[in-house]
């Protein structure tokens, strides 16, 4: 039984990771159990109808790998279009999103969990799912991230579907402060525990999901769910000092942006962030995020164009500089394993599939990630993603897992925390706490350089865990969200590790 460090978005998720670790689970087991709980209690942020990525540093020190469980375009054999409408909210500095049954993409996160568990997990699958069943059965109250989001969209997005409306509102039509219990969700989770991830793709649960979407005018059919497969890829690597980091490769754009920014920072900050360091960081963000908006979001071959961009970054940093709703869990263990998991359901379609208790995603309707339009991709095509779950290994054997929610702030939050930790030699928690900057709409006429004065969830919610070379564990969660950490020791007689 290894020692395990867990950093999660809420206390119940952290408890789940701890429960699994105390049963003999490793970092992968603990991270997956924690994320499954967020799919129950982080309403509006993530659900079982989600996509995500898992980046793992294997315990044997071999190269990191990323499991792609991101969303796919559905619609096999169907006429595309319909079943949607647009909403605008002030959430996230202003968002226009497309919701409704036609915005629901083919989910893949739980399928990816199964693939990661089969390769690197230790405990039986049922034990990984058990804590989420307990939370669903007992009920839960909204956390701060869900409440903040629902305060903006509880009527716009969650009010049009009767079951959804009843679940999130009290009798006065306000966002509920009571325990939320969805009995059908308990049954759905029990099917997933018993049948494995296939329950969401070929089982009765999958049939209920697709049937309700199709009946209400959407395009997610049973063939789309049955055809879905998670993909395991070598992680995208970058070396910073004595660390080698692995993050999400194409077709996600998030990992490409993290890798480019880390390489272009050139070892900054050289201590505490100073004015020159911040100015350089802004230039780096402007170059990378601007290139993304101009090229990477519109390419027909992201792998080709991402490789060309990273080659230019490596060849001549200066030339590049002069050209112009997610949840995350991290876990590491004393055997040297690290696991970083980021998942999302978009802004939510607003509907609960009948008989399932599962809020469905709206990832086809995330307009900032669908440059080709709502139904502009061929069925079976993976969508674009900002996600960048990242792991790292030091030459001395230390291992780290880090990631963040936060839409287009995911990459800038991760890079600033990592740069402060590695280059600035800050403590992990200090590096996460440090105020951030973000270049919004980089390179556009409406570009704004946003500088954080008060810690707010707009700038992300980094969660990170670290195994030091001597085996001691560290866990750090972002004060910008209700983060929670746990350190589980195989030998409880040992003194406490640093948090």
TrEMBL record:
Keyword terms, alphabetized: Hydrolase, Transferase, Zymogen
A Pfam family the protein falls into: G_glu_transpept
Keyword Metal-binding tagged: no
GO molecular-function term, one example from the UniProt record: hydrolase activity
Metal-binding as UniProt keyword: no
Top-level lineage group: Bacteria
Name the record gives this protein: Gamma-glutamyltransferase
Similarity annotation: Belongs to the gamma-glutamyltransferase family.
SUPFAM superfamilies membership: N-terminal nucleophile aminohydrolases (Ntn hydrolases) (SSF56235)
Alphabetical list of InterPro entries matching this protein: GGT_bact, GGT_ssub_C, Ntn_hydrolases_N
């Amino acid at each position: 039984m290894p020692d395990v460090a867990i950093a999660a978005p809420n206390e119940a998720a952290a408890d789940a990771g701890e429960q699994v670790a105390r049963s003999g689970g490793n970092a992968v087991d603990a991270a997956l159990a924690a994320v499954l709980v967020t799919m129950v209690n982080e309403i509006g942020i993530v659900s079982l109808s989600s996509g995500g990525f898992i980046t793992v540093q294997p315990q044997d020190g071999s190269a990191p790998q990323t499991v792609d469980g991101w969303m796919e375009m559905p619609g096999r054999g169907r006429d595309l279009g319909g079943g949607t409408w647009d909403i605008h909210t002030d959430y996230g500095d202003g968002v226009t999103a497309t919701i409704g049954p036609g915005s629901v993409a083919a989910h893949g996160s739980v399928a990816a969990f199964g693939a990661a568990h089969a390769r690197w997990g230790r405990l039986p699958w049922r034990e990984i799912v058990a804590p989420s069943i307990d939370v669903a059965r007992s009920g839960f109250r909204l956390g701060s991230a869900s409440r903040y989001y629902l305060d903006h969209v509880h009527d716009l997005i969650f009010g049009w579907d009767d079951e959804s409306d009843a679940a999130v509102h009290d009798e006065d039509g306000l966002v509920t402060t009571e325990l939320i219990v969805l009995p059908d969700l308990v049954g759905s989770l029990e099917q997933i525990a018993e049948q494995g991830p296939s329950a969401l793709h070929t089982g009765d649960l999958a049939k209920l999901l697709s049937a309700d979407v199709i009946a209400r005018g959407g395009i997610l059919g049973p063939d789309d769910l049955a055809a879905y497969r998670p993909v395991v890829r070598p992680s995208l690597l970058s070396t910073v000092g004595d660390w080698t980091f692995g993050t999400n490769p194409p077709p996600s754009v998030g990992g490409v942006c993290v890798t480019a920014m880390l390489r272009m920072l050139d070892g900054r900050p050289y201590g505490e962030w100073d004015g020159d360091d911040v100015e350089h960081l802004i230039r780096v963000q402007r170059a990378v995020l601007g290139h993304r908006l101009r090229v990477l979001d519109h390419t027909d071959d992201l792998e080709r164009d991402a490789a060309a961009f990273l080659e230019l970054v490596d060849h001549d940093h200066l030339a590049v500089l002069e050209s112009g709703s997610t949840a995350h869990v991290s876990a590491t263990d004393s055997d040297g394993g690290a696991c970083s998991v980021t998942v999302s359901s978009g802004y939510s379609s607003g509907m609960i599939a009948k008989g399932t208790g599962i809020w469905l995603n709206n990832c086809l309707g995330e307009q900032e990630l669908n440059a080709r339009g709502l139904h502009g991709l061929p069925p079976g095509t993976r969508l674009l993603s900002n996600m960048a779950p990242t792991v790292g290994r030091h030459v001395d054997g230390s291992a780290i897992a880090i990631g963040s929610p936060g839409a287009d702030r995911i990459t800038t939050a991760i890079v600033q925390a990592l740069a402060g930790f590695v280059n600035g030699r800050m403590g992990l928690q200090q590096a996460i706490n440090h105020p951030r900057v973000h270049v919004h709409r980089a390179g556009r006429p409406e570009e704004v350089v946003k500088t954080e004065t008060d810690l707010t969830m707009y700038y992300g919610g980094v969660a990170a865990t670290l195994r030091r070379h001597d085996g001691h564990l560290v866990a750090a969660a972002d004060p910008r969200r209700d983060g929670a950490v746990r350190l589980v020791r195989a030998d409880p007689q040992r003194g406490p590790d640093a948090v």
